Amino acid sequence: MSKSQKLFNESKKVIPSGVNSPVRYFEPYPFFAKKSNGAYIWDEDNQRYIDFCNGYGALLLGHRRKEVLSAVSKQLTQGTMFCTPTQSEIELSKLIVSNFPSIQKVRLVNTGGEATMTAIRLARGFTKKKKIIKFEGCYHGAHDSVLVKAGSGSAHNGISVSDGGLDEVSKNTLVVQYNNSEELERIISKNKDIAGVIVEPILANMGLILPEKNFLSEIRKITKDNDVPLIFDEVVTGFRISPGGAQQHFRIKPDITTLAKALGSGFAVAAVGGKKEIMDLLSPGGKVYQASTYAGNPTSVSAAIASIKTINKIKNKLYSKLEKYNIMLTHAIDDIATDLKIPHQINFTSSMFQIFFTDKPVVDYISSMNADAKKFKKMFSILLKNGVFIAPSQFEVVFLSDAHTKTDLENTINAYDVALKSVKN
Fold this sequence. Notes:
Blueprint: H1 3-14, E1 33-37, E2 40-43, E3 48-51, H2 66-76, H3 87-99, E4 105-109, H4 112-127, E5 131-135, H5 152-156, H6 167-170, E6 173-176, H7 181-190, E7 194-199, H8 215-225, E8 230-234, H9 245-250, E9 256-259, E10 270-274, H10 276-279, H11 298-339, E11 345-349, E12 352-356, H12 365-369, H13 373-385, E13 388-389, E14 398-399, H14 406-424
Helix pairs in contact: 2-11, 3-11, 7-8, 11-14, 13-14
């Protein structure tokens, strides 16, 4: 029996289902991580994997990036927690504002879920209205307002609305089909109580689903025309798509933005930012309450500052390299699957991709759900046995990092070759 299996048996006795987040579980048991470095992660049995899960997108710069660890180590000698303002919080906020032109002021929080929860509360406080519109398959955290037809682990486990959620909360969440701006416009025109629209500009929690041409600009126009705040959930895409996120790439200015993951390079830090007149509603200056003991934690803030500075310094090489590597990898996988006559679609952009086992384009929640998840599960297992770790769910994304090398890509392509042949059989 492997160490991971023994640890999982032990874990189930004290942790619900043996894991602290649903997407970490896979059959027959998840491996237990021991260490990581660069593009690699090792389990308790000392098996090394090329890591394409990458902290679900957080590790844009790879594991244990030296600039980040150096900044954190320096901060640790000065203290881990103060619960008073620090100069570093100002520095980080200025960096975020300079990278995201739509953000005039920003408040630091701890997680992406906390950021989206605050963003929605701000939209309601600003408009004095109740209803929120989200898009089917978009995942905005595990809180009641957005855990309705959500992606990520919710979709993976077949949970459309979570038990324990309040009907009176979820009834104020209206769900629209992704890539369907006409439906959005129709729903807004019929409801005068819309407080805001929240969307992943690139849907990265339902596999990878890209916005169709003009979809995001149409959302922006519709929300502007109806005085409805637009929230871009850039928890995944912030810094990963470009230094200014998906909004820089698509040249769209939302009213509110949420950031996390690549912001902190593996440290727990997130942010919600936006227009001054909206952000100034936050307490204590305003009446929209938000608070957190760990917000602005100096250790996490130091990691985020180092992350953004490193990204800005190497951005001219970083994003072109990642896109080049992604094209190499996805084209090779596509060729293998095509030669094997396996019905498939590969959606990719920047440093993210996902393969779906279906003969129809994947453009929304329904088409993603219609892909063959059993084949994906089999492919995942074979990839893992061949030293490649991707997220275990069809409804997640494969992430590249700056730490990946051409040799890693070659080994990964070989692993996909073996895995796809097993899927065909």
